[in-house]
Design goal:
This protein is α+β, with helices and mostly antiparallel strands. 18% of the residues lie in helices and 32% in strands. The strands form 4 sheets. The chain has an 8-stranded mixed sheet with strand order 5-4-8-2-1-10-13-12. The chain has a 3-stranded antiparallel sheet with strand order 3-7-6. The protein is elongated, with a radius of gyration of 25 Å.
């Protein structure tokens, strides 16, 4: 589910504070093969550098933007690892508010030869409607190291909870995460599954001024590989962290950022459609065509309604306003996810069935953390019916 960060607008226009953008970050001019630790000399592949920087800054002293930097070096030592790393992908969606500032890749062969990819090595493709840019690497062999660096500039920032998975199936050395923001924006974070959390970088009081950025940072010397296990939820057990805005020192209202209570009110206002007389007439006509009116109990009504709506109003995965307008949905018999929620709520209110809109996540992906509010946990819509203690997934 796509959550629109309606509350974040409070931060997009604010007092001007400076920070240091990461757009000028670059790799070493004369790279050398990095030494592989003895414990993983014979491993199929091992990450020798994994650096992520997230930098928030004010564009033209007003609108908040974000720079995302990722720099990795992977040692490959098997045919499978070569196959897995012979392309370096950078997905960029249709959102024009995401700009590729820098994308670089190179191979350092086992003999120390440096093969840097050129602009004409960048290929483009479209996979399931998503535009993909990637390097097709040259010179990759056993004992080689693959280095990649990209920087994204995002004018649509995410302040209310971003998850970063630090652990994967490859052992990692020299892993780091660094977040910087203007001094008025205070962030908080939480780490999971034994990962050491981010720490605020202190600056001596005599060195502080309004241009001193807020900073969270952490370096992990070694992150062990987490191999998939049969019948186990792999990503649930990954070491990961979540960061989000905590407060805006220049705007006390921003302390409400990421509040589930605030979001619940907004979601209810948007999706819980209360039919007027005109809409009720349309809904009554549709219900006569279904089996809903024949159902006696609330459970039977809900089953009949769900079956009818799923059969006659298919969900379309498109961000089109027409697919979110209740009148257009009834006429065209198609809705996107947001429109589907409006459709269900309109019928439920028309039938006077008590319900609550629920936002949650897939438990096979991550465990919902009730103690740390983050939009990264709000991915799926459900409907809850207090009278019968039942749930429905529209």
């Amino acid at each position: 589910m796509r959550i629109y960060h309606l509350l974040s607008i409070l931060l997009l226009f604010s007092v001007s504070f400076s920070t240091f953008a990461q757009k000028d970050y670059d790799w070493e001019k004369d790279p050398q093969l990095l030494e592989v630790p003895e414990a993983h000399k014979d491993a199929p592949q091992v990450s020798l550098k994994h650096k992520i920087d997230v930098n928030f800054d004010y564009l033209n002293n007003s609108e908040l933007e974000q720079f995302y930097t990722k720099h990795t070096i992977i040692h490959v030592n098997s045919d499978e690892a070569i196959e897995e790393n012979n392309k370096i992908y950078l997905p960029v969606g249709a959102n024009s508010r995401v700009e590729v500032v820098k994308q670089k890749a190179r191979v350092i062969t086992s003999k120390g030869e440096v093969i840097e990819m050129k602009e004409n090595d960048i290929k483009e493709a479209e996979v399931e409607g998503v535009k993909i840019r990637y390097f097709a690497l040259r010179g990759l062999e056993k004992g080689a190291q693959v280095e990649s660096l990209f920087i994204l500039r995002k004018k649509s920032v995410d302040l209310n909870g971003s998850m970063v998975r630090i652990q994967d199936e490859v052992p990692k050395y020299n892993t780091s995460f660094d977040l910087t923001a203007p001094s008025n924006l205070i962030f908080t974070s939480k780490a999971y599954n034994g990962l050491k959390n981010l720490e605020e970088v202190d600056v001596d009081e005599e060195d502080k001024n309004e241009d001193t950025p807020f900073r969270l940072s952490q370096t992990w010397d070694y992150i062990e590989a987490l191999k998939p296990e049969e019948n186990a939820f792999h990503t649930v057990h990954q070491q990961k962290l979540i960061y989000r805005i905590s407060k805006n020192m220049a705007n006390p209202r921003a302390n409400l950022m990421s509040s589930y209570e605030q979001l619940a009110k907004i979601i209810s206002e948007i999706y819980d459609v209360k039919p007027d007389k005109k809409l009720s007439k349309k809904l009554s006509k549709i219900l006569k065509e279904s089996e809903v009116d024949k159902a006696k109990s609330e459970v039977d009504k809900l089953i009949a309604l769900e079956n009818y709506l799923k059969l006659n109003f298919p969900m379309v995965d498109q961000p089109n306003p027409v697919l979110e307008d209740i009148d257009a949905i009834l006429e065209n018999k198609a809705a996107n996810e947001s429109g589907t929620m409006k459709l269900y709520c309109a019928f439920l209110n028309h039938l006077d069935i008590e319900h609550q809109i629920v936002l949650t996540n897939d438990r096979s992906d991550d465990t919902f953390d009730k103690d740390f509010e983050s939009y990264s946990f709000l991915k799926n819509y459900l409907l809850y019916f207090p009278k019968t203690d039942k749930y429905m997934a529209p």
